[in-house]
Amino acid sequence: MLYARDPVDPGRRRNQNLEDLPAPASQDVTLEAQLCFALYSASNTIDQYYRPLLEAHDLTYAQYIVLMALAEKDNVSITSLANRLGLSKATMTPLLRRLEGRDLLRREMVEGDERQKFIQITLAGRALFEKSCGVTEKVFEKSKLTPEQANTLVALCKRITQD
Questions:
Q1: Most buried of 82, 125, 130, 135 (most Cβ within 10 A)?
Q2: Is pLDDT at 145 greater than 60 in this prediction?
Q3: Structural contact between residues 125 and 99, judged by C-beta atoms closer than 8 angstroms
């Protein structure tokens, strides 16, 4: 016996025999054929490539991308930075505190609005980011992708994440 959602009232479950279930669609429903699993596996692999390389600079991947974003565009609000990185403000607060504690960035309050803070990369933060830039190239080499494949993959990922 299997419990299924009632199509008329999705909040109500109803008993259903396996024989009553519709036949699977003709598409491949194996794990290896799933886009979500391919992206998940690739993301984990890339993370494994980054981790030891960034540890040599005493950085996590999240810290690294914060420094990268600030090196590109400095003096931004926490909200703007969080949106750009796809992170929640709740995630950003401890992350920024750690980086600020290491003198890699500064959080400045906006005059007249103490709730609003802008983030600025420090000279030490910029120097560490520049010193760690080679990490990205090493990860790219380990990926075994051609530049064209990497560009295509980046474009496809951007397409997926567009609203």
A1: 125
A2: yes
A3: yes
Q: How far apart (Å, rounded) are the C-alpha atoms in residues 60 and 51?
A: 7
Residues 149, 86: Cα–Cα separation, whole Å: 24
Q: How far apart are the first and last CA of the chain?
A: 40
> Exposed, middle or buried: residue 81 (CB in 10 Å: 0-12, 13-18, 19+)?
buried
pTM: 0.77
In angstroms, rounded to a whole number, what is the distance separating the alpha carbons of residues 87 and 116? 17
Q: Which CATH class is domain 30-161?
A: mainly alpha
pLDDT band per the 50, 70, 90 thresholds, residue 113? confident
Provide the residue type at 109 as one letter.
M
Structure tokens at 52: 């030891």
Tokens of 24: 């699977």
Q: What is the pLDDT of residue 92?
A: 93
List 110's β-bridge partners, or say none: 113
